[in-house]
TrEMBL record, chain A:
It comes from Didymodactylos carnosus. Pfam families: Proteasome. This is Proteasome subunit beta. Its main location: nucleus. Coiled coil: none annotated. The lineage of its organism: Eukaryota, Metazoa, Spiralia, Gnathifera, Rotifera. It comes from the Eukaryota. Signal peptide: none annotated. It is found in: Nucleus. Keywords: Cytoplasm, Proteasome.
UniProtKB/TrEMBL annotation, chain B:
GO terms for biological process: proteasome-mediated ubiquitin-dependent protein catabolic process. Its main location: cytoplasm. InterPro entries: Ntn_hydrolases_N, Proteasome_beta_3, Proteasome_bsu_CS, Proteasome_sua/b, Proteasome_suB-type. This is Proteasome subunit beta. Keywords: Cytoplasm, Nucleus, Proteasome. Component of the proteasome complex. It is found in: Cytoplasm; Nucleus. PROSITE patterns: PROTEASOME_BETA_1, PROTEASOME_BETA_2. It comes from Didymodactylos carnosus. Pfam families: Proteasome.
C-alpha cells in the first residue's frame, strides 16, 4: 500500500513511474533504489507492488511465459495480449492454493499495425480485475495520482506534458504522504522500446521559521525582579 | 461496505422487454469500495447477433465469467456451425455458474435475446449460482437493483415500441442509480430490434 506505482498514457507513449523505497516495520527505509519494473517484451513492461515475495514471483512467472511465447511463436505479444494473459493468471490463482497479493500496471506500445491505439495502459488489481485507463495507480498514491490525472490529463499529450503531470503528482506525494518518496524512477515506452528517463524527486518544501513572538509566555511578560 | 463482496466494485444493469424489441443497459463505474478508479467499465457482453449478457458483481468475476462463457459459445458455434439462440446461451450460463455451486462466482447475470424471424423476445435473470427465472418482462441486477426495480415497474408498459422502450429503460436506470453511490458515472443502453441494434451512451451525473 505504501509503495507507489503510476502509469500515464500519452499520444504515442506510456510513462511508468515508481517510487524507489523499500520500507520495513513501518519505519525503516531499507533501500532507496528498488526496481519494481519487470520487462515483458521489447515494447511492454509491468510495474508491480504489494506483498514483496508475491510481487517478484508473479511478475517473473508472467514475464518468462511471455518471453517463451515469443521464442515458440516468433512474434511479440501486444500489451493488450500480455495484460489479458496476466489477468487470466491472476484470476486463476485467486481461487487456488497460492494467490498473489500483487497489484500491477502493464503499459506498452503495440507494434501490431492493426491496433488503432498504439500506446496501451492497463491496471490489474490483486483480485484480477483489469481496466484500461489514461492514468492508473496503485497504493496510497492512487488518491493523489487519479485526482491530478482528472485535472491535468488531455488527449494527445506530449512527453513534456506527461512529465510535467508526473512532477505535480510526485510533489504532492512528497508534501502529503508520510512515507516520503525520496526518489521516483521514470521510464517511457514508445516505438523505440523501453527507455529510462532521469529520476524525479519531490520538490523541497519550504516552511516558514516559527516567530519569536510564539516563544513568549505569560510568565516571561511578568517582570518579577523589579 | 465492509464484508459485502457483491458491493465491493459496485455496478448495476437493467433489462426490459418491448414489442419485438428488448433493451439492456448498464452503468460504467469501476470502483473499489468508496473509491472510483475508472469510468469506462461496461458490464454488457455480446455473444451473438441478438444475444447479450449483462454481468454485475465482483469485477474480476465479471471478466472471468464473460471469458469462460465466450470460450463455451465459441466452441458451440464451431461445432454446431450456427449462431446461438438466447435460451441456449442462458442454459450455458446457468450451467457454468452452477458448476461452482460450493465456491461460486460473485456475479448476478441478465441474459436477453430476440429471435429475428419471429420477433419473440427473451429476458432471463440469474443469481450467482444459476437460479432460473422464467422469461420475465423486467429484470435488474447490481447494487442499485432495488431502486431501479421500483422505477422499472412504474415505467414499464406491455408492447412498447423501440423508442418508448429506450425512454423507459434510460429513465429507470438513470434515476435509480443516482440514489446509489456505488453505481453511476455514465450509462450505455443497447436496444435490440429484429433488423438492428442501437447503442446509445447516456449523459448522466458524473458522480
Amino acid at each position: 500500500m505504501v509503495e507507489s506505482i503510476i502509469g500515464i498514457r500519452g499520444k504515442d507513449f506510456v510513462l511508468l513511474a515508481q517510487d524507489a523505497n523499500t520500507t520495513k516495520y513501518g519505519i525503516l527505509n531499507m533501500k532507496f533504489d528498488t526496481n519494481r519494473l519487470f520487462k515483458l517484451s521489447e515494447h511492454c513492461a509491468m510495474l508491480a507492488s504489494g506483498e514483496p515475495g508475491d510481487v517478484v514471483q508473479f511478475a517473473e512467472y508472467v514475464g518468462k511465459n511471455i518471453q517463451l511465447y515469443k521464442m515458440i511463436n516468433g512474434i511479440e505479444l501486444s500489451p493488450y495480449a500480455c495484460a489479458n494473459f496476466t489477468r487470466h493468471e491472476m484470476a486463476n490463482s485467486l481461487r487456488s492454493r497460492n494467490s498473489y497479493a500483487a497489484n500491477l500496471i502493464i503499459g506498452g506500445f503495440t507494434t501490431n499495425d492493426a491496433d488503432q491505439q498504439k500506446a496501451q495502459l492497463f491496471s490489474i488489481d490483486y483480485l484480477g480485475a483489469m481496466i484500461s485507463a489514461n492514468v492508473v495507480a496503485h497504493g496510497f498514491c492512487q488518491f493523489f495520482a487519479l485526482g491530478v490525472g482528472d485535472k491535468l490529463w488531455r488527449e494527445n499529450m506530449t512527453l513534456e506534458d506527461g512529465l510535467h503531470m508526473l512532477q505535480v503528482i510526485v510533489n504532492e506525494l512528497g508534501k502529503r504522504m508520510a512515507a516520503y518518496p525520496h526518489c521516483v524512477f521514470v521510464r517511457v515506452i514508445n516505438k523505440d522500446g523501453i527507455q529510462v528517463l532521469d529520476n524525479m524527486y519531490p520538490e523541497k518544501i519550504h516552511v516558514q521559521k516559527p516567530e519569536e513572538a510564539e516563544l513568549l509566555t505569560s510568565a516571561d511578560m511578568m517582570d518579577i525582579h523589579s | 461496505m465492509g464484508d459485502d463482496i457483491m458491493g465491493y466494485n459496485g455496478g448495476v444493469a437493467l433489462a426490459m422487454k418491448g414489442k419485438e424489441c428488448v433493451a439492456i443497459a448498464c452503468d460504467k463505474r469501476y470502483g473499489v469500495q468508496n473509491r472510483t478508479i475508472a469510468t469506462n467499465f461496461t458490464k454488457i457482453f455480446e455473444y451473438g447477433p441478438h444475444c447479450y449478457v449483462a454481468l454485475c458483481g465482483l469485477a474480476t468475476d465479471v471478466q472471468t465469467v464473460a471469458e469462460r462463457l465466450k470460450f463455451r459459445t465459441n466452441l458451440y458455434e464451431l461445432r454446431e456451425q450456427r449462431k446461438l439462440k438466447p435460451n441456449v446461451l442462458y442454459n450455458m450460463l446457468t450451467n457454468l455458474l452452477y458448476e461452482k455451486r460450493f465456491g461460486p462466482y460473485f456475479v448476478f447475470a441478465l441474459v436477453i435475446g430476440l429471435d429475428p424471424k419471429t420477433g419473440q423476445t427473451f429476458l432471463y435473470d440469474s443469481d450467482n449460482i444459476g437460479a432460473i427465472s422464467d422469461n420475465v418482462n423486467l429484470a435488474t441486477v447490481g447494487t442499485a437493483s432495488e431502486y431501479i426495480f421500483g422505477l422499472g415497474e412504474l415505467f414499464f408498459k406491455p408492447d412498447m415500441t423501440p423508442d418508448e422502450l429506450f425512454e423507459a429503460t434510460s429513465q429507470s436506470l438513470l434515476n435509480g442509480f443516482d440514489r446509489d453511490s456505488a453505481s453511476g458515472w455514465g450509462a450505455v443502453v443497447y436496444v435490440i430490434e429484429k433488423d438492428k441494434v442501437t447503442v446509445r451512451e447516456l449523459k448522466a451525473r458524473q458522480d
